[in-house]
Amino acid sequence: MPISGEWFTPTGLNFNAIHVRAKTEWVHLALSDGNGIVGQGEITSTQLARDVAPVVARLANNLRGRRLTDDTDVITFNNLSVEQLEEDQNLATAVSGLRCAVADALSQLLQVPMVDYLRELYDHEGKADRRVQLYSNINRSMLPDDNGAVDRSPDSFAEMAQRAMEDWFTTAKCAPFDEARAPFSKTGLPREAEMGLDRIRAAKAIIGLDRKLLVDCHSRFDLESALALEPELRQAGAGWFEEPVDPIKFPDDLREIRNKAELPIAGAELGYGVGLFTKLMEDDVLDIVMPDVKFCGGPVEAYLIGRELEARWEGSVSMHCPSGPLSLLASAHATAAFGNKIPLEHAVYEVEWRHEVLEPFENVSKGFLELPDEPGLGARVDPVAIAFRGRQWTE
User: Fold this and answer.
1) Mapped to the 3 state alphabet, what secondary structure does 103-145 carry?
2) Per-residue DSSP letter, 3
3) pTM of whole model > 0.90?
4) Among 160, 262, 336, 391, which residue carries the largest CB count within 10 Å?
């Protein structure tokens, strides 16, 4: 049900993109009405490198001039099914961005920050913490930049881990297995994983025993190689084993890995909807699910995933967020609303000017993000940043 009978009637749609480095750019949409309300969402699709904007434009055409009272109206007015959204990543990304924009607009109309909107929408008692703890994903800072390849030696991983610890992060994450891709030529531990293990050992030596190093495998392994890798990760000091195989495509394999592993198994960053994440937990596929606000359905759906799963499996939800500051902000509202047990992912040191993309600036200090007090998401993509570092267009 809508809160206080408010509605949002979009009439305009615009897009913008901020160039980050090499092939990476943060892509956003903005839905506007005739009264100065603008709702925003991020539709960066780093995993697929596909253009989601045309899909957004097609869906948004069916929202123009309508009274939207809930972010799920994006689905209703486009006659979409959950099955379609679970199966089509491009569609899920477009819907997630639009749902975020609608929720942003509705909470602005109510003059409340989104974190409060989410809790009020579902009668969540109490007041949410405005400081959201983050963990540092150091991987994207070592991907190619505009000048080409960047050093990804074990020493470089150690240096980035050192920088994160000096900035007060208590947990770091890396994706070290560049050379590995199943199938492999021999059984057991693949030779191609050795450099990745060296990178982990170097980073863990800096991080120490009292702080965590999470390891993301980007689905580069298969059942046999993942089972051989897991004890090596434990010995190297990894804190979790993220996506050795794709949990949505190969749930049976990942269930077997989970049953035999001692490390927590995390993943499902490309999943959509509370139903899919609940099933992954009920079927014992994962210990920790990782909904991404850009793909899972937006901040309202992310909040529902966190609220419902944490009530049944405490410490089971860790928001995935390796993208831009608008995604981090939306994710932080959702995470704060359901009361996070695991810190929120933050891609650190990708560019030094990241905080300047939003107005007001992104406020990260000593490993925490401070949520703004303004209504809705509380910040916008700064037109100056777009003019200086990006582009804008309409579809």
Assistant:
1) HHHHHHHCCCEHHHHHHHHCCCCCCCCCEEEEEEECCHHHCCE
2) S
3) yes
4) 336
